[in-house]
Amino acid sequence: RWVLSLECKGSRNLMSALRRAVEVDFKDKDKHKSQGLYLLTTGIPDQETHTISAYVAEACGGLDLQLHVCLFSVTEGTDSSGIIPARYANPRETASAFKEIVQAANGRFHRFGEAGIFESDDIKSIISEMEEAKNYSQKCAFLVESLKQRS
Predict the structure, then answer these.
(1) How far is CA 109 from CA 35, 82, 100, in A?
(2) Rounded to an integer, what distance in angstroms lies between the CA atom of residue 82 and that of residue 88?
(3) Which of 22, 86, 119, 142 is 20 to 30 A (C-alpha) from 14?
């Protein structure tokens, strides 16, 4: 509920936000079976990717805690307010950085923009499951056909 009272503001200081979320807001983390942090962002964090990855790997390591990222791609080189961030990366580099971070945190990555969904770990998983079901169905159909020919 507290999320609904928040307003968009601040910087791309992801380390500060993660520390607050993990070390302050999750003080009762032992009472919950699993928890997830969702980062909604439009660009690369101010800190280096390897630094954030190392932190989330350590922070999420002993817990059932995942960091999921939803990256909204906007006009290249600016954030949604038109301000060039302290650390710049093009959309491909930004996506790559967040993929590395969520991998370290056992999370999921989603990238979308005004044109729609560019990539999503959830959608990849669903498509993979559908492909597996299709392959299984084809094997079953082949087996049934083989049995019919023997009769």
Answers:
(1) 16, 24, 9
(2) 13
(3) 119
131 vs 144: CA distance, rounded Å: 20
pLDDT per residue as tens, the chain (151 positions): 556 776 766 667 888 888 888 876 665 666 666 678 899 888 888 889 999 999 999 888 777 788 999 999 765 544 455 555 556 788 889 999 999 999 999 899 999 988 888 999 999 999 999 999 999 999 999 999 998 888 7
DSSP state of 22: I
**Domain chopping of the chain, boundaries:** 2-114, 122-150
CATH architecture of 2-114: 3-Layer(aba) Sandwich (3.40)
Torsion of CA 82, 80, 84, 37, to 10 degrees: 160
The three-class DSSP label of residue 73 is strand
Helices (H), 71-112: 91-104
In terms of Cα–Cα distance, which of 137, 64, 60, 40 is closest to 103?
60
- Between vectors from CA 123 to CA 42 and to CA 87, what angle results, nearest 5°? 20
Full-model pTM: 0.72
Residue 129: C-alpha distances to residues 15, 16, 42 (Å): 35, 37, 30
